[in-house]
């Protein structure tokens, strides 16, 4: 079973460069200014712990060897018309570790090696810009980032993220966002010191899997521990919990839209926005029966109730359920300002999300088999907030050439009309029940040496409610005009983790428990042109 | 015989005296145009003259040190008058008797456009501060300067150029305008600046937008970060921080880029002559050329690789001003060399907190005619040299693409929206 419109056939992949070349020729022929740029990179990551799911000791085995080509075309046709196209070609080595995951069952729904999940070349962006006086219109496949924060999306929900090839850790989130074909209108209003932006996303102009966040549910290297080698979607002829992008109320082909006013008052930048979009995290609409047990040969009569409640009384397309992204409404407010007295920039955002979807429950038979959350879906209104402080710190003892960049962020999620007895789970299959408020803190410390050619950075975060966190030290190097190199260590710690034996009973595996046994050493070499 | 011998001795003595006198007379000859001052000949021609002034008298201590120790060469050219724009002169004269520095606020009041203090006197106790305000408010830069292609090269003194990012900037004056009304808006805003990089790939779209105020208030600043596709507010105190990974502070843009009142004070050290570039060759950089000599027209391809040796150095009379920085500033002071005829800074010396010489700054400029006929002064290139780290940042402009006062550019074109749009 293939994910809907997800895999590029070879012919289609081969067609991208041809299409790009045609666009390039057309643009070049008309352009007054035409630029081609890009880079070639090789990124490798190594397991620094042994994932318990695999029979071998996979500590110090490579988990990724990823070659990437970025090719960017930028053509200015006239002062008011320009065109941009961005291609990303990817080819990964089918490492021994990936083969082992495949043998365990990773990507079984596609009946292919798990490496196929990573080898996805695509035309990431292709849009025209039209400008006239105070009006700008961008049409085509593009990325739009709203909100203030780059971590833990609160308002950056115009697009979903693809966390399958590198979960959580990629700082360049333009590489993770799933660009959308949109019409993007902007009108500047100088008299009010602001601008109005309207986005329209025609559902049928976009791939169905472009909605929401995509996680590794196919058992690959970033599957939540202990699910490496487990493809929840099932296998050919045995659909356990496949994606269903066409479910009413969660239909990717529905049109969505958003509007944002952003401006400045008394040197305070602010924005107000509304977005009709899809749940960022997928939820499962569980089957009302236990037919999947019959399908795998268990002596359970067809139609035996599972105790679970499917989404809106529908019948899932999978034997155990289906993965969906229900539609939500998001109302957002952001602000940022500089305090001269403290020499500090303060930023914040608050979003009110109506009808956010959670999975819940431990009681159903499906929750007993697959883990918590298979009882059904509950919709909740959320208030998500973030406050941030950015300050340049003169840490002379570190000998850096300029003040260190220091940023601290505090996040909070508040579930309105919260009832503990509802047992909303943080993530399907994991036991930690959601609390009314959950908070998380992160920090970044960035330094620069030798005219920026050596740039160490420390990123860390701690889950103040459920425990656990991450520490990511890295150093980036520049050599000459073309070469870049980065080395990074990704360390996770947690307050509880799921194992093969406690799946139905554990109640303390939250966000950083999903990353248990996933410590990584990562290095990336880039040649840019 | 004795008489003859005595006469011969006297004659010989006279010849010797005359010959002795003749030596300095011969050394003090006028050197021709195109003579290149270098380490090889500085001792020989230091006492010679050019336009009637001795070469040595037109070299500051640090200039002579650079020539002797760091490969700097100065081709001599005759000085040419910088023709000042009539509108600017008229606006400047209108400030006479009207503009003054408020001692409490340390701000200039009564200024409309042009330079606020066109008739500074050395005897004026505020002379140094007034010269700096003339630079800050009265530069001959036009209302809008659009520079689509320039580079901020990073140069290692041993290895040469190791980065050549290409950027665009637009400067927009909201106050002190010479076309139309002198002030746009409520007068609070001094101007705007939009800057973004076009190359290399990892910097493409990275840019900043600044709003400068006509008050003590620090700039409002934003950065667009393409990797996350987001605008982020920056610290207004960043005016004392380096620009990116360069050797240049925000405050070092064209040598002095602060609101004058942000500094503790200014001291006039005197007037003197220096050899400086006021009528630069242009362009000094051709981004489309691939051969070194054609691409880096003025830059010598020899260690320390930052010397703009192939330009026109001419005698210019300058004020020498010591500017005392605020306590948080990385420098303890700057010594500035400012033309006495119009607001232009040719050289700056920066000293660290221990009082040690740290950086040398030179900027080259040339007069030009704007799209609307305004006579402006443009930068062709410059260097900020960190002698403690043997590293420099060299600023070079593709001058043929520079446009001053192009028609149709509005404040809304130099905005946060424009910063985001550029980051595509």
Helix content of chain A: under 10%
Instruction: Specify the CATH class of chain A.
Output: Mainly Beta
Largest interface, C-beta closer than 8 angstroms, per-chain residues: A-B, 58 and 43 residues
Q: How would you characterize the largest beta sheet of chain A?
A: 18 strands, antiparallel, barrel
**Gap from first CA to last CA of chain A:** 39 Å
SSE-based structural type of chain B: alpha+beta
Q: Tell me the radius of gyration of chain B.
A: 24 Å
Overall structural class of chain A, as computed from helix and strand content, comes to: mainly beta
Q: Strand tally of chain A, please?
A: 24
Distance between the termini of chain B: 100 Å
In brief, what are we looking at here?
The complex is a heterodimer of chains A (about 525) and B (about 425). Chain A is mostly beta strands. Chain A is built from 5 helices and 24 strands.
Task: Please give a structural write-up.
The complex is a heterodimer of chains A (529) and B (424). Chain A is mainly beta. Chain A contains five helices and 24 strands. Chain B is an alpha+beta fold and 424 residues long. Chain B folds into two domains: 21-75, no CATH class; 127-422, outer membrane lipoprotein receptor (LolB), chain A (Clam), CATH 2.50.20.10. In chain B, 17% of the residues lie in helices and 32% in strands. Chain B contains seven helices and 21 strands. Chain B has a 15-stranded antiparallel beta sheet that branches. Chain B has a two-stranded antiparallel ribbon with strand order 1-4. A two-stranded antiparallel ribbon of chain B has the order 2-3. Chain B starts with a helix and ends with a helix.
SSE diagram, text form:
The complex is a heterodimer of chains A (529) and B (424).
Chain A: H1 10-30, E1 33-47, E2 62-78, E3 81-92, H2 96-104, H3 115-118, E4 122-132, E5 135-142, E6 180-189, E7 194-201, E8 234-235, E9 238-239, E10 246-247, E11 250-251, E12 256-265, E13 268-278, E14 283-286, H4 291-295, E15 321-324, E16 327-339, E17 344-360, H5 365-370, E18 376-393, E19 404-415, E20 437-446, E21 454-463, E22 469-479, E23 483-493, E24 520-528
Antiparallel strand pairs in A: 1-2, 1-24, 2-3, 3-4, 4-5, 5-6, 6-7, 7-12, 8-9, 10-11, 12-13, 13-16, 14-15, 16-17, 17-18, 18-19, 19-20, 20-21, 21-22, 22-23, 23-24
Chain B: H1 2-27, E1 36-37, H2 42-45, E2 49-50, E3 53-54, H3 61-69, E4 74-75, H4 86-94, E5 100-101, E6 108-109, H5 127-138, E7 144-156, E8 160-163, E9 166-173, E10 189-199, E11 207-213, E12 220-225, E13 230-234, E14 265-276, H6 292-295, E15 314-324, E16 333-339, E17 345-351, E18 357-369, E19 375-386, E20 391-397, E21 403-404, H7 416-422
Antiparallel strand pairs in B: 1-4, 2-3, 5-6, 7-8, 7-9, 7-20, 7-21, 9-10, 10-11, 11-12, 12-13, 14-15, 15-16, 16-17, 17-18, 18-19, 19-20
